[in-house]
Write a structure and sequence with these properties.
Elements lengths: L5 H15 L4 H16 L3 E7 L4 E8 L10 E3 L3 H9 L3 E3 L21 E9 L2 E10 L7 H18 L20 E4 L1 E4 L2 E8 L14 H24 L8 H13 L2 H12 L4 H17 L4 H22 L14 E5 L4 H6 L5 E6 L7 H9 L3 E3 L4 H4 L5 E5 L4 E4 L3 H23 L14 E6 L7 H5 L4 E5 L1 H6 L6 H15 L4 E4 L26 H7 L1 H14 L4 E6 L5 H20 L7 E8 L8 H7 L2 E4 L1 H9 L17 H17 L3 E3 L7 H10 L3 E4 L1 H11 L4 H12 L8 H11 L5
Parallel strand pairs: 9-10, 10-11, 11-12, 15-16, 15-22, 16-17, 17-18, 18-19, 19-20, 20-21
Antiparallel strand pairs: 1-2, 1-6, 2-3, 4-5, 5-6, 7-14, 8-12, 9-13, 13-14
């Protein structure tokens, strides 16, 4: 395609000249409507912008009464202008007054005009205003004229949504594009973060809108589309991509869309109207997004993410923008906003600059959430559409205790949250004063509060939180952060640091729990339809013993002359534990043979997180030295719920009678066998759930550092045996027809127990 439209391209060049002039905001708008009217041979051109109160205000006009500017307004859906804003679709009418939505505004003097063309001013699919042209004669505007007006509206949208819109519009802070928003989400990690938005996968900001030469832009587009298609073909041909399954289906859908001539043709038409290749891509994305956001079909709405991802890939091909922000560009008070994020991606950010996390999709048991809790970073999940509603640099507040996100908050709201932060700091100081107090209930039950850790930055929390030790050291996290596989010397040094930091306090190491959704960047991922139930953890270690043996030898050497507590994850049957134990014995003999010291004592245990192991508890407790319940995976496997799927992750409550019965069975059988038992899932770190666990008989709980203070405050007010007497009868089949969570909350309130 090699064509040019002199009219639209000339208009865009004139707009660029007006944008460069040093004139007042109102003069700029007035010049713009005059230019558009002249180019479109229209007697009227008007710009309406959407205010924060969702009213469309007339900001500038050529042809209507000038006195109506900033006086005339319409509600969303009111009149033709309101209809265009609500539906985000152009409206082309021969006789405007005959349309059922026509609303007469006498102060404008528009009753003498019949033909009407209006287009939405769109950005990221959001309506920011409406651009209108009118004529007295009854006529139908051509497709070329509609396209030209839409292209011009895109330039206006960039002006409205500018990072410092006050330089353009005196009423900028009142515009909808910059309005304050309160968005409800799900609390994931406690705390409050105040700062500025940093998009994890930043949208490409198109600054060069107006093309100098259409043919050059068409060549750029063709080259970028070819690169995009080739990259998708390579991914689909890669051995790393399974021949079937959801991952491949998504890539196939991407390839089909990338090869859609209709999509490319629309971009080419926008270039023909005078836009650069990247501006044309953004325009087509805006139009497509606006239509799909207003679809009622949930499947079509879900495809929005796919279209956004593919379009952003093409934009990055055109302008060469990297996927994520560099560490040196991260502000000191960053709130990371993302659709979702892996644990390694989160750890790539400089911890001291991250004040909070906001996710569109992540749930309470996603690995990013678990890391956030461990690092004490407030986090909110399930925040619908947040990545499209904000821009990098916007002010934002993430309240991880309530799940509320405040976007572009006013000063009084910021001050209120700043006070909340100060109050929380005072409360944390109270928890800190408890750190040397004994973890004992009111009726004398001693509870051991242990730390979940995985990085050296976690180690100071042992003393700060007053933890009794490390109940779970996730050895896979350092592997996930590293760019290459850590050598034995590096692993040994890390484990020595952990043991030294703990001093006399116990440390329980868990062997590598990789595979599934815990992918190491330097190992080829195996695509599986159900990775959580696939080749991971001890299964991978037993099949690839060199991986397991390297780690175990590092742990044996680091623990030389001391006690080593080691447990294996994802054990499905007792035979797997015995195989892993046999490998460790061979590694110990190997080290002794080569003159290395070995631990003075070795205690081996297992995670209980696969339901099949529940039917071998007696056999298991005869061969292990200790065990730990991984409540996250155990709950999700028992209830067949995917921890990363927001539709089902919250459907079932871990405080339900069936799951609490399972937990009670485990603790009872361990007590009979006299085997030490702990629980290290997320339940242990929430005061209400921890209260239930103590009533069931658990006496060792392992949790994130920030949870130790609240849990200790709770248990020191608890009469464990009294609650046990009230709770256990309600777990019996047929004895309880209510909500156990509500029962426990009511009990805590009655007894003045802080939960």
């Amino acid at each position: 395609m090699r064509r040019t439209l002199a009219g639209p391209r000339l208009l865009l060049r004139r707009l660029r000249e007006v944008m460069a002039e040093e004139i007042s905001p109102q003069e700029r708008l007035d010049k713009i409507v005059v230019l558009i009217a002249a180019n479109m041979v229209a007697e009227v051109c008007s710009i309406y912008l959407l205010r924060a109160d969702r009213q469309l205000e007339l900001f500038a006009t050529e042809g209507l009464n000038r006195t109506a500017v900033h006086r005339t307004s319409l509600r969303l859906g009111e009149g033709l202008v309101g209809l265009i804003a609500a539906e985000a679709e152009p409206l082309n009418l021969t006789d405007a007054s005959a349309h059922p939505s026509f609303a007469y505004k006498p102060e404008t003097g528009e009753e003498i005009y019949h033909s009407f063309l209006g287009v939405p001013v769109l950005r990221a699919g959001q309506t920011l205003g409406v651009l209108v042209v009118q004529n007295r004669a009854k006529r139908t505007y051509t497709d070329e004229e509609i396209e030209a007006l839409q292209t011009t509206a895109m330039v206006i949208a960039e002006m409205v949504a500018a990072r410092e819109p006050g330089a353009m519009f005196p009423q900028a802070n009142q515009l909808d594009a910059r309005r304050t928003m309160q968005i409800e989400g799900q609390p994931l990690a406690d705390g409050v973060g105040l700062g500025e938005v940093v998009l994890h996968e930043p949208r490409v900001v198109v600054t060069n809108l107006i093309a100098e030469d259409a043919n050059t832009e068409l060549d750029r587009l063709e080259a970028a589309v070819d690169k995009l298609r080739l990259s998708l073909d390579r991914m689909l041909a890669s051995r790393d991509v399974a021949h079937h399954g959801e991952h491949r289906d998504v890539l196939e859908a991407y390839r089909m869309f990338a090869n859609d001539r209709g999509w490319v043709r629309r971009i080419e038409e926008a270039i023909g109207n005078g836009l650069t290749a990247e501006a044309a891509v953004e325009k087509v994305q805006n139009d497509t997004r606006a239509r799909m956001m207003r679809q009622t079909d949930p499947y079509l709405r879900e495809r929005l993410h796919d279209i956004d991802d593919l379009t952003n890939r093409l934009l990055r091909e055109l302008v060469g923008v990297p996927m994520s922000i560099s560490a040196k560009d991260l502000p000191k008070d960053a709130i990371i906003v993302a659709r979702n994020m892996g644990a390694a991606e989160l750890l790539d950010y400089e911890r001291g600059r991250v004040r909070g996390l906001v996710f569109e999709e992540a749930g309470p048991t996603s690995h990013a959430t678990i890391i956030a809790r461990a690092l004490g970073i407030p986090a909110v999940g399930q925040v619908a559409g947040v990545t499209s509603l904000c821009e990098s640099g916007d002010s934002i507040i993430a309240d991880g205790s309530t799940g509320v996100v405040q976007l572009r908050p006013p000063t009084d709201v910021q001050n209120a949250y700043a006070e909340k932060v100060r109050f929380r700091a005072r409360r944390q100081a109270q928890y800190k004063r408890l750190r040397h107090r004994p973890s004992v209930t009111l009726d004398g039950e001693e509870i051991s509060l242990m730390l979940n850790a995985g990085l050296t930055v976690d180690l100071p929390h042992l003393e700060e939180a007053g933890a009794a030790g490390i109940g779970l050291f996730r050895t896979e996290i350092p592997f996930m952060v590293a760019q290459t596989f850590p050598r034995m010397r590096e692993q040994t040094g890390l484990y020595e640091n952990v043991i030294s930091a703990a001093g006399e306090r116990p440390v329980v190491f868990r062997t590598l729990d990789i595979g599934g959704d815990k992918v190491l960047p330097y190992l080829r991922a195996v695509q599986e339809e159900n990775p959580a139930m696939g080749w991971r953890a001890v299964r991978l270690g037993l099949d690839r013993p060199a991986l397991l043996r390297t780690q175990q030898r590092a742990l044996l050497r680091a623990s030389a002359g001391r006690r080593l507590r080691l447990m294996f994850p994802m054990v499905t049957e007792t035979g797997e534990f015995e195989q892993a134990r046999a490998i460790l014995e061979r590694d110990k003999l190997h080290l002794k043979k080569h003159g290395h010291d070995v631990p003075a004592e070795i205690k081996l245990g297992t995670m209980i997180e696969v339901p099949s192991l529940l039917f071998e508890l007696d056999e298991l407790f005869r061969i292990v030295d200790f065990a730990s319940v991984g409540s996250n995976d155990l709950f999700h496997f028992l209830t067949a719920t995917d921890r990363g799927n927001p539709r089902v992750a919250e459907r079932y409550d871990a405080m339900s009678a069936p799951f609490l019965r399972v937990l009670k069975t485990i603790v009872d059988r361990a007590a009979v066998a006299d085997v030490p038992l702990s629980i290290c899932g997320e339940m242990a770190g929430r005061p209400l759930e921890a209260m239930a666990l103590i009533a069931l008989g658990y006496r060792t709980l392992s949790m994130s550092p920030s949870a130790i203070g609240p849990v200790k405050a709770m248990l020191r007010k608890l009469k464990a045996n009294e609650l046990r007497a009230r709770l256990l009868p309600r777990l019996e089949a047929g004895r309880w027809d209510g909500d156990l969570r509500l029962f426990l909350k009511s009990y805590a309130d009655d007894q003045n127990i802080p939960v």
